[in-house]
UniProtKB/TrEMBL annotation:
InterPro entries for the chain: Mito/Outer_Membr_Metalloprot (IPR051156), Peptidase_M48 (IPR001915)
Coiled-coil parts of chain: none
Any one of the GO CC terms: membrane
Signal peptide: none
GO BP, sorted A to Z: proteolysis involved in protein catabolic process
Protein name: Putative Zn-dependent protease
The protein's required cofactors: Zn(2+)
Length: 493
């Protein structure tokens, strides 16, 4: 499975309490005193506690050479930063999402999705410096000081999106999608540090500026984003112009040549898994399929899927309802349902033992009361089924505020009752796609080169963005581009 990012409203973070005592510390980057609730020792301990959670959430992408490359460059950059003595850790995680993020204490993560979208080593180095900057400037600590840290690990420093969903062990922990947003000042400072660090180890930071053009296209372009003044995250195009300016200033201070290394980087990611890994579950035509576990279910229309190794979640279009599917403990659906009721103090209004597509199941409907930090009580309503299949108990839940539940009940119940054994061989045998680096045989446009490489017409723009180019760009013979191999080329994405 894999994780997709999304934004949820206040109702799913009603449960956060602040349990920390404030202190003051010196910011390692600015040298100024700042309010801090977390000592460096505690910061490192947090990172060490969160790291296993991140690894469990995403999984490590098994590519020793690429992992080694990330670790080598990360350590080189961290060594010249303001905090070289942190126990820096750099991991490549198994997610198609285009993102990079950090947790306190020097733990930095890059997804395979963002590695696929870099088009040279300098772009990678600039983003790496940006994420290191979030740690050296203690942005992760400053934001986490405002959140409860006792039960749910938070991560931050997203290069593309400012929030990441985290989940815990019980239903309510799983439903609490907590957000760690860096304001424009913090993001701008990390952009500056990205330029500083990548320039210091010899990379052309102007290429980092160019990568913001890719992020702009991935986010739908300027016409599909909120105005900059309405967002705490800087507009990619504004960041691009600022980083270009900073890079030029940094390079004016030295006469050295700065490295880009386009071809070397592309050769490095040849064969990288691209997009969804079918073995971890995939979406096709409004349904979710999991070949390894041999099940499928339908997704409510227009709901957003959030997929991780430990659970699948779906979010309503208005973001006021959520569904979750994960494994429950034990092998008895009745016992699993009883445990769920006790753990979440569920006020049960109905229970059913009706089978779901021939599979033994127990379904309960009930309410959960929660208090926010202002002492206000919110009532959440859930429909949850425990389905016995393949030696496992699958828990499928739908959740919303009680007063809104009827709006979503039919869709949630329909999705739950669609859970079934997967027998379609075409779905079971779907193969993953991988990046394939090909050499352009003759001069021409990117569009023609992609078509010659077997990229379907419907996916030309997707691969233009992946290559950081426009379809109309003229390419010389011998130019390297990204195409793909494997997968189901003719299936819609």
């Amino acid at each position: 499975m894999y994780l997709t990012l999304t934004r949820l409203p206040f109702l799913l973070s009603l449960f956060i309490l602040s349990l920390l005592i404030s202190t003051c510390a010196t910011n390692p980057v600015t040298g100024k005193r700042q309010l801090s609730l977390i000592s460096e020792e505690s910061e490192i301990q947090m990172g060490q506690e969160y790291d296993p959670q991140v690894v469990a959430e995403f999984g490590i992408y098994e590519d020793p050479e690429l992992q080694s490359f990330l670790r080598e460059k990360g350590n080189e950059m961290a060594a010249i930063s303001e905090r070289p003595n942190l126990p820096w850790t750099f991991r490549l995680v198994d997610s198609e999402v285009v993102n990079a993020f950090a947790v306190p204490g020097g733990f930095v993560y890059f997804t395979r999705g963002i590695m696929a979208h870099f088009n040279n080593e300098a772009q990678f180095a600039g983003v790496l410096g940006h994420e290191i900057g979030h740690v050296t400037a203690r942005h992760t600590v400053a934001q986490q000081s405002k959140q409860q840290l006792a039960q749910i690990g938070l991560v931050g420093g997203m290069i593309l999106s400012p929030e990441l969903a985290s989940q815990g062990q019980t239903l309510m922990q799983g439903m609490q999608l907590l957000f760690l947003k860096f304001g424009r000042d913090a993001e701008s400072q990390s952009d500056e540090l990205g330029v500083k660090y990548s320039t210091a180890i010899g990379y052309d930071a102007k290429e980092m500026a160019g990568f913001f053009g890719t992020l702009d296209r991935l986010s739908g372009g300027e016409e599909n984003r909120a105005p900059t003044f309405l967002s705490t995250h800087p507009d990619p195009l504004n960041r691009e112009a600022r980083v270009e300016e900073l890079a030029q200033i940094a390079q004016n201070e030295s006469a050295r040549d700065y490295e880009v290394d386009r071809n070397g980087y592309l050769r490095r990611i040849d064969g990288l898994l691209y997009g969804e890994d079918p073995n971890q579950g995939y979406v096709q035509s409004g349904a979710f399929y999991h070949p390894a576990l041999r099940f499928n279910f339908t997704i409510p229309q227009s709901w957003k899927l959030i997929n991780s190794p430990t659970m699948v979640q779906m979010v309503a279009p208005d973001q006021n309802a959520i569904m979750q599917m994960r494994l429950a403990e034990g092998t008895d659906p009745t016992a699993a349902a009883q445990s769920f009721v006790q753990q979440n103090k569920l006020q049960v209004s109905s229970t059913s033992e009706q089978a779901i597509n021939g599979l033994p199941a127990v379904t309960i409907l009930g309410d959960i009361s929660q208090q926010n930090e202002q002492g206000q009580t919110a009532t959440l309503r859930t429909i949850t089924s425990f389905i016995s299949y393949g030696g496992n108990i699958y828990m499928m839940s739908g959740l919303s505020m009680a007063q809104d539940f009827n709006k979503y009940a039919r869709e949630m119940e329909g999705s739950i009752r669609s859970f079934a054994e997967l027998t379609d061989q075409s779905k079971l045998n779907r193969k993953p796609e991988r990046i394939k680096i090909v050499e352009v045989n003759q001069a021409g446009t990117l569009q023609q080169a992609l078509l010659n490489a077997g990229v379907p017409q419907a996916r030309l723009e997707e691969f233009a963005i992946l290559n950081g180019l426009e379809l109309s760009n003229q390419l010389p013979a011998g130019y390297l581009i990204k195409a793909f191999s494997g997968g189901s080329e003719n299936l819609p994405r």
